[in-house]
Structure formats: structure tokens, C-alpha cells
Amino acid sequence: MTDTKLDILAISGSLRRGSFNTGLLRAAQEEAGADVAIEIYDYSDIPLYNGDVEAAGFPAAANRLKDRILKADAIIFAVPEYNYSFPGVLKNAIDWASRPYGKSAWAAKPAALMSTGGGLGAARAQYHLRQVLVSQGMHLLHAPEVFVANAATKFDANGRLSDDVARGLIKQVVINLSAWTRRLAASA
Ligand SMILES: Cc1cc2nc3c(=O)[nH]c(=O)nc-3n(C[C@H](O)[C@H](O)[C@H](O)COP(=O)(O)O)c2cc1C
Q1: Rounded mean pLDDT of the chain?
Q2: Ligand 1 centroid – CA 31 distance (Å)
Q3: Nearest CA-CA partner of 36 in 160, 161, 174, 184
Q4: Measured between alpha carbons, how far is 68 from 130 in angstroms, rounded to an integer?
Q5: Is it the case that residue 1 has pLDDT exceeding 80?
Q6: DSSP 8-state code for residue 151
Q7: Closest atom of ligand 1 to CA, residue 84
């Protein structure tokens, strides 16, 4: 971390090009102040977790993710809901970066969560993810909570978040996560 700029890693639970959740992360980039840089990370090259593969040598793509998490000052997740939980692709990436046991890259990282999807704004998925991240000892931001309901009505034809209430909440998440990250760093 520098005094002037925080490095925030943004991770979407959706790999699809037109993802509304990745759209939330782009909105976070747009709403962020000059004291914050947000990079959206593509982890689509990570293989399925398999203990035999890990024992044979960590895959390069999983190592890259671990290194990038370790370098980041904080993380922002945006997740869709798949069958009342968050997508397996994200769980797989979380699992790889948590290995080997005792050396999780997620440990003690400040993080914020957001979600968008159907009528509940993927609330069930976001709360499942929150539970999983607690297992990693992450320092999770509590407020504001961002559940963007009815995603299809909140983005324009270019995939840009067009809902001002949601944009305001996302802006506040970035502000609060930045303050939370600096506070934790100062007390370390
Ligand atoms: C396998 C699968 C399961 C889904 N299950 C749910 C669900 O339980 N609840 C819900 O609100 N939406 C569900 N959806 C709809 C997605 O949440 C929705 O398509 C969302 O826009 C996907 O996020 P994305 O736009 O970031 O890719 C499901 C979609 C898929 C592909």
C-alpha cells in the first residue's frame, strides 16, 4: 500500500462476457476516487482443484492468482446466484488460493461483497460467500450491503450500470473499504 493509492483486486463470480456482476465491478472502478485503483481479475484459466494436481506442483494459473491476491491491499467480490449459492467457478478459485493449508492468500485481507441477479439481488449467494470467506480469516466490510435486484432492468445496452441508487451504494462501498483497509493497516 502507498500513502496515496490503494490496490484493490476485483473478482467476479461470473465468467461470462456480458456478466451483470462484472458490470458492478466496472461501476466500482468508475465510482472510485483517485486514491484507489481497482483491477478486475480474469481467473478463467484456473483448472479444477484436485489434490493430486496440487501435490504434483501448483498450476501456474493458481500461483498467479495467489500472487495477485497477496499483492492487493483489499478485495471486492461481485457474485451471481446459481441455485441459491455462488458459482462453483469462484469456489474453485477460492479453494486454490487457500492452499496449501495454513498459507491461504486470502488470510487477513480486507474485503467487500456485492451481488446482482433476480428479485433478491443474489442475496442468498452473497451470504454463502460471506460464510466461506470467514473461513479464510478475511476482514469483511459490513456496510453498506449491495444487493442489486432485477439485474436485467438496471444496466443499459452497453452493460453499464444505469441505476443511480446502486451506483451510490457501490461508491460508498469503495469509500468504506478504503477507510477500513487503511485503518487495519495502521493498527497492524
Ligand atoms: C446454473 C444457474 C443457476 C441459477 N440459479 C439462480 C438462482 O438460484 N437464483 C437467481 O436469482 N438466479 C439464478 N440464476 C440466474 C443468474 O443469477 C443470472 O443469470 C445472473 O444474471 C447471472 O449473473 P451474471 O449476469 O453476472 O452472469 C441462475 C443461473 C444459472 C446459470
Answers
A1: 97
A2: 25
A3: 174
A4: 21
A5: no
A6: G
A7: 8
Q: What is the set of domains in the chain, with CATH numbers?
A: 6-186 (3.40.50.360)
Cα 95 to the center of its chain, rounded Å: 14
Centre of ligand 1 from the C-alpha of residue 110, in Å: 26
Q: Report pLDDT digits (tens) over 52-106.
A: 999 999 999 999 999 999 999 999 999 999 999 999 999 999 999 999 999 999 9
Compute, in angstroms, the gap from residue 46 CA to the centroid of ligand 1: 21
Q: Is the peptide bond before 144 cis (omega within 30 degrees of 0)?
A: yes
**pLDDT 10s digits, 19-50:** 999 999 999 999 999 999 999 999 999 999 99
Pocket test for ligand 1, best of 81, 127, 128, 129 (most atoms within 8 A of CB): 81
Q: Which ligand 1 atom sits closest to the C-alpha of 120?
A: 11
